[in-house]
Amino acid sequence: MPHSVPSSPKSTPKNGGNGLTKFTNCRVLKGDKLVDEDLWVNSVTGKVVRSQAAFYDDLCLPDETINLGGRILSPGFIECQLNGAFGFNFSTSLEPAVYAKKIKEVNKQLVKTGVTSYMPTITSQRSELYKSALPFLGPSGDYQVAEDGAESLGAHVEGPFLNPTKNGIHSVDVLREAQSFEDLVDCYGLSNITTDETGRPSSIKMITAAPELGQMTRLIPELTSRGVIYSIGHSEATYEEASAAIAAGATMITHLFNAMRPLHHRNPGIFGVLGIAESLPRPYFGIIADGEHLHPTTIKIAFNSHPDGFILVTDAMHMVGLPDGAYEWTNGDCTSHIVKKGPKLILEGSDKIAGSSITLIECVSNFLKWTGASIPQALRAVTTTPAAMLGLQGLKGCLDNGADADMVVLSESQTNDGLDLVVDEVWKFGTKVFSRQT
């Protein structure tokens, strides 16, 4: 398949070195704290290594020691909802070679924003588009090298099993209901939703669907047993229906508050499952902190309701990094346009918000300014928490021993509005792939 072509080791040390890099004079994100300590990484294995073992047990000296001057060293950011970026929309039908080339271009640009891993997202489309695009969006896994840039953790399919009354800008003409697992297979293709005989994971990592439609809630265990995360979204689900979905195995909510039944004092709807009075596990949830989708106070309420489930997402479209203007967008069977004016995207001829054009680091800075959260709390929303939601604890979203050496060096910039975090450097598998100074 397109995402399973073997490649070389993570990196080759320069000048015959051992591939070890030591970061010193830095504040490393560890849990809920920024800790003053050194960090060692190995570009050959692509992993974080225990400095005492490298220095004392193996008698190794680093190839390079980097003094970060007190700056923050964070795990690489994880983006869970990205519809496209830098001019390419993942929901596009192209010749395979062209599609693959576009993905590589996005990966190399995306990593410069601090995003080292992400879930490429396809909106509601016809089956033919899913079947042609999804093979290119599966998990990169061991085939990824640092120079490739950001890596896919698996595709997020946002639709087409959505409630037509909460479609957002998704075309109602392509929305469907599922009565059986065969309906999902018919839509996405068996190989894209099932682990093959070699153990290679399916292309799809997460599905956003309305649990109240058809037999979708009954199908959740079938999906989760195949390693697919079920996320509630674009839904009219009542509190009871959302609770039933959680009981069946749903563990995520797509862009909380947007495209769903609003909170009501007598029926809290989907938001209600974040409450602590129930016996059910509380799900993770995505929040778009672009200043358009949600009021800052709404974001603060959501965070305070369940901090450990709070995940910042962009829901960004392919207009990220592009100037203002009208851009073509494939919307089911139709071609429409999305108008970009600054950070705001609107479906042409309507007043509907059409995703965002914000970057994840901008969402982090907005969250800091709007909520009074600490820097560790804000960074956890794009590192540790999404990694936990994806079942990647200890591998992604942290800088523990043995974790992938995906890192972002951040500086702090005080503005009139508050504190901004700035991406200075990005390292992928222990190799520097971006520097703001070059």
From TrEMBL:
GO terms for molecular function: metal ion binding; N-acetylglucosamine-6-phosphate deacetylase activity. Its cofactor is a divalent metal cation. The active site is at residue 315. Its EC number is 3.5.1.25. Substrate binds at residues 169, 258-259, 266, 293, 353-355. Keywords: Carbohydrate metabolism, Hydrolase, Metal-binding. Belongs to the metallo-dependent hydrolases superfamily. NagA family. This is N-acetylglucosamine-6-phosphate deacetylase.
